[in-house]
Amino acid sequence: MDTQQITAPSRTPSPVRGSAAPSSGVAHINSRHTSRFTVVGNHLAQHRELSLTAIGLAAHIQSLPAGSKIGIRFLANRFPESETRIAAALRELEAQGYLQRTRERLPSGQVVTRTVSYNQPNTAADRTPVPEPQSRPQPGLRRTVPSRPAEATPPAPAPAPAPERTPAPASRPDAEAPAPQHAPAPPSPRPPLPQPQVPDLDRQRTAVDLLANLRRHEPRLLLTENDIHRLAPAVAAWLERDAHRDAVRHTLTTNLPEPLRQPAGLLAHRLTTHLPPPLPAGPTAISTPSPHPLQDCDGCDRPFRAPQPGRCRDCRTGVPEAA
Q1: What average pLDDT does the segment 201-225 reach?
Q2: 253-268 residue pLDDT tens
Q3: Do the bridges between strand 294-296 and strand 303-305 make them parallel or antiparallel, or are there none, so unpaired?
Q4: Which domains are present in the chain?
C-alpha cells in the first residue's frame, strides 16, 4: 500500500499547445486555417492611432469579396454601431490610407461612390503592376538558350526595325496634342444665391437661427459663422415666398451625400436650385356697398334706411303732390 506511483503526473498539463504557457497575459491556441480566412497585417491589428471600431471595420471590409456593399446605412444595419460611429471609423481608415472613397458621375447622371480597400496603408500612389512570374528554365534548356542568339547575331535585320520604331513615338504626341486643348473645359459659373425682394430684419433673424440649429438635426451640417451669414439671405428669400421653416429644414437636412465634404456648398446649391416660386395672388375680394344708416321717419317715426333724414316711402307716397 505504501508503494510510490511513478506514473501519476506531477502537475496538471497546460491547455496551451506549442510553446510554454506564459506566466501572465494572453495565451494563444492557434489552429491552421485551410479555408474561409483573411490575412490581416499587424500594422492594422496593432495600429496605435486607429480605434477598435476602425480596426474591426477594416478587417471586416478586407474579408468581403469584391463588389460587396459597405455603405454607412448598410453597415449600421449589419452591426450594432450607429451610423455616426461607423462614419467616423471610415474617416479614420481613409485618413490612415486603408480606404479610398471617390465620387464619380455615371453617363446617366447618377453620382456613385467608388470605394477601394488597401491591406497596406499609403500604397495607392506607389503601387505598380507586379509582373507575372516566369517559369524557370529546365537544366536541359539552358544550353539551347544561348545558342539561339548566337545564330541570330550574324544576320543584320535587327538594326533595321530601330528606325521604323522611332517615328511611332513621334506620331503619338501629334495624335495626343489636340487632347489637352479639348480636355480643360472652363467651369460653369455658379448661379448667385437668391436674395429677398424686401429686406426684413425679423425674417433675417429667423433665417440665421434656422441655419445655426441645423447641426441639432444633422451633426454633419456644422456651419461657420461666416457661412451662416452668407446663406441667411437665401433662406430669407425662401421665407419671403411663404415657405415654412420645417419645409426649409427638411430640404436642407434630408438625403445628404456620403461623405459630406463641403456642407456649406451643398446648402448653397440646394437653396439655389430648389427655390420655390412665389405663391400666386389670391382672388380679389368684391367690394359691396355699405347700407344706408337708419333714419326715423318725420311723419310716422318708423325707422327706415336713407342717406339723409326725411320721410319713409309710405309717407312720401301718401302726401299729395303740390299743384
Answers
A1: 90
A2: 988 888 888 889 889 9
A3: antiparallel
A4: 42-117 (1.10.10.10), 201-273 (no CATH)
- CA atoms of 58 and 98, how far apart (whole Å): 8
Do residues 70 and 99 make contact, with C-beta atoms less than 8 angstroms apart? no
Place of cell 445655426: 212
Q: In whole angstroms, give the CA distance from residue 276 to residue 87.
A: 33
**Contact present, 218 and 183 (Cβ < 8 Å):** no
Kindly calculate the radius of gyration of the chain based on its CA atoms and give it in whole angstroms.
Answer: 43
Q: How far is residue 319's CA from residue 323's CA, in Å, rounded to a whole number?
A: 12
**Paired strand residues for 117:** 99
Residue-wise pLDDT tens digits, 32-68: 888 888 888 888 888 888 999 999 988 999 898 888 8
- Number of H helices and E strands in the chain, helices first, is 14, 4
- For residue 142, pLDDT over 70 is answered with no
Do residues 30 and 18 touch, judged by C-beta distance below 8 A?
yes
How far, in Å, CA of 104 to CA of 114, rounded?
7
Which residue bears the cell 495626343? 176
Helix/strand/coil for 122: coil
Q: Reduced to 3 states, what is the DSSP secondary structure of residue 320?
A: coil
Q: Is residue 173 scored above 90 in pLDDT? A: no
Average pLDDT of span 212-219: 89
Count CB atoms within 10 A of the CB of residue 239: 19
Q: How far apart are CA 170 and CA 178, in angstroms?
A: 14
- What is the pLDDT of the chain when averaged over all its residues? 76
For 83, counting Cβ atoms within 10 Å of its Cβ (0-12 exposed, 13-18 middle, 19+ buried), the class is middle
Backbone angles phi, psi at 149, to 5 degrees: -60, -30
For residue 49, what are the contacts with CB-CB under 8 A and spacing of at least 6?
92, 96
